[in-house]
Amino acid sequence: QVQLVQSGAEVKMPGASVKLSCKASGYSFTNYAIHWVRQAPGQGLEWLGGINGGNGKTKYSHKTQVRLTISRDKSATTVYMELSSLKSEDTAVYYCAREIWEGTEMTHIFPFWGQGTLVSVSP
Amino acid sequence: DIQMTQSPSSLSASVGDRVTITCQASQDISNYLNWYQQTPGQAPKLLIYDASNLATGVPSRFSGSGSGTHFTFSITSLQPEDIATYFCQQYDTLVTFGQGTRLEIK
């Protein structure tokens, strides 16, 4: 079965960077894209970006693209997201999510989600 | 960016009621619209994709409709386990979510 297992909680100072991981299993990693979505405390969902597991092509939201890097390690079947220049507003639960259909084009329909990783940014 | 406006922001209904949530897009998004359910402390769960398609394993009391800029999500015969927050999501141009609708039992 499809599983997405995320790395543990992080506490960071403003201005620092954070790198989260999402380990995928139970399917052919290179056939699907994985995305990152975050949720600030008590708030809604915000899409950050995604990466194609096969060709590594990425897509980012306009808001975070300057500070966000999404990468993947095919041999480790793991996707990473690194957010730099952290601000207090980046405090959120960060989820990775896999797309519904395989292919080279992203479909942006997310039936599979990781358990979430809490990132706290505080001086 | 495309803005998604959900209404109402919160809703109280009785078990057995029909519940309807709407989502308005700031521009035409065809049928590139999904609906998710989220309970506290959990990741979102996909319920409806492409505006009207029921995701695998989702009960048939959930349904979606619409195209262009106006979309609706309905639950026929509300069950206690349906208490959650519901989000719409467009993917016509990048991805944006609605602000969510919190559903409570009356």
What would you note in describing this structure?
Chain A is mostly beta strands and about 120 residues long. Chain A contains no helices and 11 strands. Chain A has strands at about 5, 10, 20-25, 35-40, 45-50, 60, 70-75, 80-85, 90-100, 110-115, 115-120. In chain A, the strands form 2 sheets. In chain A, strands 2, 4, 5, 6, 9, 10 and 11 form a 7-stranded mixed β-sheet that branches. A 4-stranded antiparallel β-sheet of chain A has the order 1-3-8-7, with no helix packed on it. The radius of gyration of chain A is 14 Å and the shape is globular. The mean pLDDT of chain A is about 95. Chain B is an all-beta fold. Helices cover about 0% and strands about 50% of the residues of chain B. Chain B has strands at about 5, 10-15, 20-25, 35-40, 45-50, 55, 60-65, 70-75, 85-90, 95, 100-105. In chain B, the strands form 2 sheets. In chain B, strands 2, 4, 5, 6, 9, 10 and 11 form a 7-stranded mixed β-sheet that branches. Chain B has a 4-stranded antiparallel β-sheet with strand order 1-3-8-7, with no helix packed on it. Chain B is globular. The termini of chain B are far apart. The interface of A and B includes residues 46, 59, 62, 97 and 110 of A.
Features of this protein?
heterodimer; A: 123 residues; mainly beta; seven-stranded mixed beta sheet; four-stranded antiparallel beta sheet; 11 strands; 0% helix; globular; B: 106 residues
What does the radius of gyration of chain B come to?
13 Å
Tell me the β content of chain A. over 45%
Gyration radius from CA atoms of chain A, angstroms: 14 Å
- What multimeric state do the chains show? heterodimer
- Largest sheet data of chain A: 7 strands, mixed
Number of helices of chain A: 0
**Count of individual beta strands of chain A:** 11
Name the largest protein-protein interface in this structure. Answer: A-B, 21 and 23 residues
Number of helices of chain B: 0
Which ranges of chain A are low-confidence, i.e. pLDDT below 50, for 5 or more consecutive residues?
none
Mean pLDDT of chain B: 97
Class per helix and strand makeup of chain A: mainly beta
Question: Biggest sheet of chain B, open or closed, and with what strands and sense?
Answer: 7 strands, mixed
Could you tell me the strand content of chain B as a percent range? over 45%
Strand segment tally of chain B: 11
Q: Quote the distance from N terminus to C terminus of chain B.
A: 36 Å
Distance between the termini of chain A: 40 Å
Kindly name the structural category of chain B: mainly beta
What is the average of the pLDDT values of chain A?
Answer: 96
Shape of chain A: globular
Low-confidence stretches of chain B: none
